[in-house]
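User: Here's a chain of 384 residues. Predict its fold as tokens.
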Amino acid sequence: MKLVLPALLLLLAAPTQSQTLSPATSVAPVAPIAPAKWALAGGELASVVACDGQAWTWGSGAGGALGDGQSTNRLAPHALADLKNAKSVASGRAFGVAARSDGSVVEWGLELGAWKKGGVPSRPIPHAVRGLSNVESVSAGQAFMVALRRDGNAWAWGSDNAGQLGDGGTLDRAEPAPVKGITALKAVACGAQHTLGLRMNGSVVAWGKNADGQLGDGTNEDRSVPVEVKELSGIKAVAAGWNWSLALDGRGRVWAWGSSLTSVVPVQEGEPPLAVEPRLIAGLDSITAIAAGNWHALALKKDGTVLAWGNDGAAQLGSEGGTSPKPRAVKGLSDVALIASGSWHNLALKNDGTLWVWGNNSNGQLGDGSQEARITPVPIELKG
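Assistant: Prediction complete.
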């Protein structure tokens, strides 16, 4: 997820031209662990997963982003000794966050807001987030975080230049504060500078940056408190990209809104490039899960295969053919149970307990021991 302008974004996070695309290799499957005991997340240049409570990180260590007490890159997964009870994880730009099984939350990496107030610029090992309890899940934008409590209330902290904290203002917060005017949430998803909230009744709200219509309220005005996303009901899951949004309904269909310049949001003849209200993506059905990177999206089908569409600048679509507004199958993936996307890379967990990755690998965020981009998904191991 990005807070910067497109040109700067490309300089900071796009894969370099020197990266090579490598075919798949093979490893022995890990001992199967039920998908319900996993959590997957991709950040800008790093990845974090939780497997049966144990958190693992790899990729860019800048700013302490891996939570291992260092600031160097890791090309393979590394277990965090102090985080063995994680149930939900998220990663942004040079930071990570996790909800623990006891309902508490820890964060690590660059301080988000505290540094502007003279605080510690980075904490390279997980530390407790004050003021949070009974948390069920967490999500991260580029420079802010949202925690969803078991009572359906959301709390947010970090950068707030566009209202993405949902507290009615635009002041950064070093510590969590409640999102105003919304309760009964069952899921949250953070984009670069906006947040989606899925209500228990299947409706969707959004707040934060809205220059490209990513809030779906029919305008392009930023919102510092939640507003209703238009024309959506019966929604089962939400995902947020850089300046666009996705929703999965109970019929297995996917809706998108926001900027269509990424090739994720559909555009029909005569329609404007900014979709300020949700549009149905043609050709997608029987979908059970969705994921959003910066400029690309994934959809998991009921049969266990994965589809990808959008920008393909780092091989993140997992197939040949370049950028595509039409979903196409990710090569070599089947029997998939969970999916997640980072800025330019992806993770997929199969039902047999193997973890697969593809896309950008400039900082080792694929965890396969190399820094080579992968156009075809490759398996990696959690060990050590």
